[in-house]
Write a structure and sequence with these properties.
With 335 residues, this protein is an alpha/beta fold. It has two domains: 11-178, Thiolase/Chalcone synthase (Peroxisomal Thiolase, Chain A, domain 1, 3-Layer(aba) Sandwich); 184-334, 3-Layer(aba) Sandwich (Peroxisomal Thiolase, Chain A, domain 1), CATH 3.40.47.10. It has ten helices and 13 strands. It has helices at residues 28-32, 39-46, 60-75, 99-107, 123-136, 160-163, 227-249, 266-275, 287-290, 297-307, and strands spanning 11-20, 24-27, 50-53, 84-88, 113-117, 142-150, 168-178, 184-192, 200-201, 224-225, 258-261, 316-323, 327-334. The strands form four sheets. A five-stranded mixed beta sheet has the order 1-7-6-4-5, sandwiched between helices. A four-stranded mixed beta sheet has the order 8-13-12-11, with helices on both faces. Strand 4 (84-88), helix 4 and strand 5 (113-117) form a beta-alpha-beta unit. Helix 3 (60-75) packs across helix 4 (99-107) and helix 7 packs parallel to helix 8. The longest helix has 23 residues, at 227-249. The chain is globular, with a radius of gyration of 19 Å. The protein starts with 10 loop residues before the first strand and ends with a strand. The model has no long low-confidence stretch (mean pLDDT 95).
């Protein structure tokens, strides 16, 4: 007989965070040796100066495992405390088994549940929402979430439109049920529009090309992106979903202690900051050092924000992300 799940009457807290970053740094000047670009051009259009690249056999599993191990250490918990691990990635190590299952095994967290979650750049915030809901249901007490990517394996380094953008890395957080009902997710939203799939995709073969594939580089298994359309969608959608989250929770932008957003383009982030009149210190930006790490980016931001003392208990923090799919999501938390 199975036990009936009783809704958790308390709150949810982020007890610990961690990151794992490849040691190799790829600079704009390095890229200028490979394609027709330069540091000033990249910086002006994206805000990116450097990004990390996995090499010497380092895999997304290595990064994910090490990031979650660091988060557990930060939380003061042993791997055996985990009830579930959610790994957000668009670069899993293989189709089967899930990378999350192997991370659980290598950490010594067996028999914790494990699954990979695919929502591209929205992945970590999707995982944050799912983990929070699982804990609130009463079915799980402690959940580890990871955003991890080795996007360098999907980058066409002859395509200057995309190769300048992406980097590798991982970030993780450990969530746990707490007695204080004021802490945790106040509002969450997860959306998608698959009609826009061809604006950002990775085709395996010719059967997966859109009807109008004029911008296809000719290299399968690499990122194909309509940068202009993705940029326009991201600017308008970021601002709209932020406003919807604030309205749903009945709070104002000035009440926020920090906005943690997926790091896609510095101009997109700054346009949102200007729209809501946020001071510079209330929008976390690290795209200059890591580039776009897809599902890992919001996770890395969260860890750095905590490490720098920019988040404290009781703060109101808004997480948001937009990614391929298209998929977009928000998560408003009382920390």
């Amino acid at each position: 007989m199975t036990a009936r799940c009783l809704a958790h009457q308390g709150g949810v807290a982020i007890l610990g965070t961690g990151v794992a970053l490849p040691p190799r740094v790829l600079t704009n000047d390095d890229l200028a040796q490979r394609v027709d670009t330069n540091d000033a051009w990249i910086t002006q259009r994206t805000g990116i100066k450097t990004r990390r690249i996995a090499e010497n056999g380092q895999t997304v599993r290595d990064l994910a495992r090490d990031a979650l191990a660091a988060a557990l250490d930060d939380a003061g918990l042993e791997p055996g405390a985990l009830d579930m691990v959610l790994l957000a990635t668009m670069t899993p190590e293989m189709a089967c088994p899930s990378t999350a299952a192997r991370v659980v095994a290598e950490l010594g967290a067996t028999p914790a549940g494990a699954m990979d979650l695919s929502a591209a750049c929205s992945g970590f915030v999707y995982a944050l929402n799912v983990a929070s809901s699982l804990i609130e249901s009463g079915a799980y007490r402690t959940v580890g979430i990871i955003g991890a990517e080795t996007l360098s394996q999907l980058v066409d380094y002859s395509d200057r439109r995309t190769c300048i953008l992406f980097g590798d890395g991982a970030g993780a957080a450990v969530l746990q049920a707490v007695d204080d009902p004021q802490r945790g997710c106040l509002h969450q939203a997860m959306h998608s529009d698959g009609r826009l799939w061809s604006e950002l995709y990775v085709p395996r073969d010719a059967s997966q090309l859109p009807p109008n594939a004029d911008s296809f580089t000719g290299n399968f298994n690499t990122l194909q992106m309509n940068g202009r359309e993705v940029y326009k969608f991201a600017v308008t959608t970021t601002q709209r979903m932020m406003q919807e989250a604030l309205d749903a929770a009945g709070v104002k932008a000035e009440d926020l202690a920090l906005v943690i957003s997926h790091q896609s383009n510095k101009r997109i982030l700054e346009s949102a900051r200007d729209r809501f009149g946020l001071p510079e210190e209330k929008l976390f930006i690290n795209i200059d050092r890591f580039g776009n790490t897809s599902a890992a980016s919001a996770a890395i931001c969260l860890h750095e924000a905590r490490e720098q003392g920019r988040i404290k208990e009781g703060d109101l923090v808004l997480y948001c992300a937009i990614g391929g799919g298209m998929a977009w999501t928000t998560s408003l938390w009382r920390m």
